[in-house]
Amino acid sequence: MNFWSQARRIGAAVAVAVFVSLTVPMQSASAADYVPINGAGSSWSSNALDQWRRNVQQYGMRINYASTGSSDGRNQFKNGTVDFAVSEIPYGVKDGNSVDGLPSRSFAYMPIVAGGTAFMYNLQIGGKRVTNLRLSGEVIAKIFTGVITKWNDPKIAADNPSLTLPSRAIVPVVRSDGSGSTAQFTTWMASQQSSVWDSYCKAAGRPTPCGVTSNYPTVDGKGFVAQPNSQGVAGYVKQTANIGTITYVEYSYALKTGFPVAKVLNQSGYYVEPTASNVAVALLKAEINTDKGSDQYLTQKLEKVYTNKDPRAYPLSSYSYMIVPTATQNGFTADKGKTLGAFANYFLCEGQQQADALGYSPLPINLVKAGLAQVKLIPGVESSSVDIKSCNNPTFSKDGTNTLAKNAAMPSACDKRGASAQCAVGTGGATATTNPGAGSGGQKSSGAGSDSGAGAGTGTATGTNEGGTSATDEAGTNDTADGTGDGSSAGTEGGVVLGATAGGGPVSCDNDTGVCQNVVAEPITVASDSAWGTQQNAALIAVALLLAVIFVPPTIARLVRERRSR
Amino acid sequence: MWAKLRRRRGSLSWIGARRPVSVDSPRAIGTSRALSDRIFRGVSRGGGVTVLAIMLLVGLFLLIRAWQALSVSGWSFLTVSSWDPDAGAGHFGIAAVLIGTVLIALVAIVIALPVSVATALYISEYAPERLKKALITLVDLMAAIPSVVFGLWGFFFLQGAVTDIARWLATTFGWIPLFAVEGFDPSDPLGSMTVFTSSSFVAGIVVAAMITPIMTSIMREVFSQAPVGEREGALALGSTKWGMIRSVVLPYGAGGIIGGSMLGLGRALGETIAVYMIISPVFVIQPHILQNGASSVSSLIALRYGEASEFAMSALMAAGLALFLMTLVVNFVASSIASRSRSGVDS
Amino acid sequence: MVDASMSAARVVPDRKFTAPRADDPATPAPEPRRVLHAVRIADLLAVGGALLAAVSVTVVIFTTLTPFGGFYGFVAITGTGFIAFYSLLTWLDSDGQMVRDRIAAAVVHMLAASVLVVLVFVVAFTLMRGAEVLPFKNFYLEDMSSTGPLDPLTMGGIQHAIVGSLIQISIALVITVPLGLTTAICLTEIPGPFSRFVRTIVEAMTGLPSIVAGLFVYATLILILGMDKSGFAAAIAISIMMLPIMVRSSDVVLRLVPGTLREASIGLGATQWQTVRRVVLPTARSGLTTAIILATARGIGETSPVLLTSGFTAALNTDPFHGPMVSLPLAIFEFVKSPEPAMIARGFGTGAVLLLLVVTLFVIARIIGRQDASSRARRVDVFQKFVAGLKSAWAFLLRTPSLFVAGVVRPVLRAFAWVNRVFGRGGEK
């Protein structure tokens, strides 16, 4: 019964465990000429960095990267606890009222990997998944600011002439944690849709003008859902019950989750998908701030990317930076510089080959040039190896020809705005084609939409709605009155009214329209819980009777026996 | 009790050494402890002091880091419900977050308490001897399931299953404000089920699953210590098993039940990753537990620390401090209750 | 569902035994043994019947009477029905006291079963999602340093995380077990205002958000003291998490040691230290094991403190003081964030490995910490039988004079005796 001898034994066991674990042979010793380096930051870029880290392992480089978030990466770099940081946002950006000051150590920004902000969604028409949704920039901004709230909104219908979308509520899913994809999305919002964005920010209690932020502001009561991590938002949209959700996320998550992404309207009137080449084409217009006096020296200027006239360009394209030290301080040595330089040289050139497979987009020639110029500033780098001529990047050939601009596929004609029918081919990870409601009434009413185009959004609204609710008189008239009365806002309102009415009476709905197909086809338990009527009372009485039949006789028997025995 | 006993013994031995036993005169009562005892008491006090120092250091650290934000916000920190520290004073406060934390913890404890008392009783009183050990190991194992795994399970599996229950609750008990769900119309078949996801209720169930094993372990331990003599006495007096449990085991284990619950409540209040993975944070006071949108202090910290500025970090620390103080108060109340039970000491 | 021991409370003699005859005191009739744990056929029938009735009534309700649907509703109604039928059946031939007993037993069994079902679900969920990766040997023997997101499951593994977790939890245990136990002893054995204060603070600390522990270590050890992000820093953060739980749960079980035992020990002239060492700690032995297990469980599965303090690496690092070191929960956290299905499968596989590791550690801990007399007796029994068997064999061998065999067997027997002394503790009694 000696406790302490047992304690000694536990201690011994622990010691043995430590000893065993210590003597496990080292898997691979890093080569003598590269010292390990540590980095932290963006989770947006982590998939690419993870792959590159693995690839350079064979050269004896040991890169440790912790994807703890862009701001954490920047803070750690500032504090000198990491050798490099990866971030979507540069230092010195005003987020709300706080300004993230520049670090005291000297540093440079280097583009590392590009990608488009994809809009992954979960939507069904008549029990079949929609895979070819198209959205214009304005609609995206209005969806993510809670202005457009139903999928059958005339503005969405204007973008999708071949789809008759149900009157489901749109549930935008945003990031609940601070994140780089939010920063990239809001950069675009602030730049291209500033009025919508600012009024939303104001409602959320933020100071305006509302610029870039990595924490997506939410306004209570708008029905937004916030989830952490890209995996979180993608996983949420993926869940079967969550029909009607849409989120902004990296393209790779939509690909691997098997879900479609929305094609986004670009400046030249095409709806394009955020594929690797479309993003790279858009980024050919990326500019870099070359004003050495500015705080924003070497940071990205994406206005021209957003408005790139190339028909292939995906508007919401951007890239992330690696923040590298340019002096030996805060524990950064020339030896580490050698490793970092070689690593950077690898991923700017060779590493970009895998960007596509990883769900990113390779950096185009202009950004690679800018990046290589920064590599040379890293102390200890072997500058002789840094040469664009020996750069094996997929977007340009060794002689400097921009192969990407030459070879990238042009969008098909059906992706052009105003084409009579939109492409039915699936997007993102969902390859199935969408052909809902063929030969149904939905098709007819949508014809009006494609004729009128985007400019006449109101007209389209009326047409679609009328077609959808021909069965319900009340809604129809209500709607027409609104549609003819006012501008586009009234049309939206009409859509909302319709949604509520059509949803309220599934039985009276017309089977021919897309809306009603949807209602009928969905496995909905139009159950007892909807209303308490005679039927429910009857059921309750039946249950009560059944229980009475079972319980009363034995109870009486028992009571009787008790009385007798007394 | 201790001091008294030791004193008696110490002085007696001292007397015995000095004087013949027969002399019976007034004696000086002094405490002289053996060397081993003095070392023992010193060492264990030292342990207490070290732990206290560490814990106070953490508290102090929180206070120092929180000071910047607290000095800016002042009392508005307690009343404001939105969370936007970068927008300055009046734009961030813990009213919503703290209430959200309490709601999740309450849901968790309301579910976990009966379940873990029953499980502990089952293991200590009902389970066949052979099954017992396996069950103990199972429960311990459950306590070690990482919160990430619980979070994933809750997110991918439980959420879908629970929405049905939540829908039923909202439809049937919607007239109780706690179960009301805004924007949910039971008669609308196209109504989205998303209003029932990511709620305090779902998070609470997951947290309940996490704290049940801890609570069960402690309670089982305490129940199994209930004096055998009294159990036998109760049975011999003709009591049923349940009668014995009610009259012997439960009163004896009251301290354990409270202690275990408090341990569980502590974990429920402080749980980070699982809650973080499930809730959709909102920054208004959200008393509807079934409705999408919840908040908790620790998940707020986990969500925001990565992208927080210096000042926002300080605000997060202030939120952590508030949670710490709240836990302190709750525990203080609980320990004063627990000390009245038999298995709790009267310290 | 309701097992045999449930009816243990009802000590009903199965047969009438014959009383010893008074006229012949010299030769009393042997008293027949009574079976205390008798299962009455009526009990089983009541349980089975109630269950059958509940299920059938629920089926009738669901299929013909009402438009109810859903699995959970079915289970809930069946459960309620079972309780109702069971109490009715019991009530038919017993009194209210007994009905209450049966209802309580049924409720306890059902709730316990629900906990176990949830547990099995969570574990099965993890195992199922991770099943894809578990068969690969490389998953246990390699690290991720030469494996990227695009590589198949046949490459890379989590050796680095397993080793990292073991090292970190070992360091944390080395810190928390002595410190936590000493503090808990201080709280129970030296009561007073100081102890009360410590207890209150420690109890409040159990609610400390785990990420704050990480932030604390990050701000102090790493930023101020300039330590690397390392396994040691992570272990310190875990220790801060574990300490309050360790102290609190040992405090709860140490309080249970009856004061009479302490008084008896003091009465026999033992000093306080001797009392604690020889009486208090051994009495609370299994409880203290539980405390250590709970603290370990919390520490080994916690992600957030490690997130900030250990750094992240894909390579094996066995030096806790330098360079990043990954633990299993952190590896899970990073794996499941990835878009690649292979990485997510690795994440769940890591979860399964963590569970297996924990089970192993706990089983070992329970064996060491076993306290109840029956199991000790059984263990001693097994060893004694074993040794007795060997001894008889030895005696047999002695009778067949073969020096060679004796030369082999004697050392073996010595070894067994040693094993018995060390693990069985049968000899000490």
Order of helices and strands of chain B: HHHHHHHHHHHH
| Residue windows where pLDDT falls under 50 for at least 5 positions of chain B | 5-17
Tertiary shape of chain A:
globular
Helix content of chain B: 55-70%
Number of helices of chain A: 20
Share in helix of chain A: 40-55%
Number of strands of chain B: 0
The secondary structure category of chain A is alpha/beta
Number of strands of chain A: 17
**Most extensive interface: pair and counts?**
B-C, 122 and 123 residues
What's the CATH H-level superfamily name of chain B? MetI-like
What's this model, at a glance?
The complex is a heterotrimer of chains A (566), B (347) and C (429). Chain B has one domain: Orthogonal Bundle (MetI-like fold), CATH 1.10.3720.
How are the elements arranged and paired?
The complex is a heterotrimer of chains A (566), B (347) and C (429).
Chain A: H1 3-22, E1 37-41, H2 46-56, E2 63-66, H3 70-79, E3 84-87, E4 94-95, E5 98-99, E6 107-122, E7 124-125, E8 128-129, E9 134-135, H4 137-143, H5 154-159, E10 171-175, H6 180-192, H7 194-203, E11 225-227, H8 229-238, E12 245-250, H9 251-257, E13 263-265, E14 271-272, H10 276-283, E15 287-288, E16 300-301, H11 303-306, E17 317-325, H12 334-348, H13 365-375, H14 403-407, H15 441-452, H16 457-468, H17 473-485, H18 488-504, H19 514-521, H20 534-565
Parallel strand pairs in A: 1-2, 1-3, 9-13, 10-11, 10-12
Antiparallel strand pairs in A: 3-17, 4-5, 6-12, 6-17, 7-8, 13-14, 15-16
Helix pairs in contact in A: 6-7, 12-13, 15-16, 16-17, 16-18, 17-18
Chain B: H1 2-18, H2 35-73, H3 76-79, H4 95-126, H5 129-144, H6 147-173, H7 200-224, H8 228-236, H9 241-270, H10 273-278, H11 297-304, H12 310-338
Chain C: H1 41-65, H2 71-93, H3 96-130, H4 138-141, H5 159-189, H6 193-205, H7 210-224, H8 231-254, H9 259-267, H10 272-283, H11 285-300, H12 304-309, H13 328-337, H14 341-369, H15 373-399, H16 403-424
Helix pairs in contact in C: 1-2, 2-3, 3-14, 5-8, 5-11, 5-13, 6-8, 7-8, 8-11, 9-10, 11-14, 13-14, 15-16
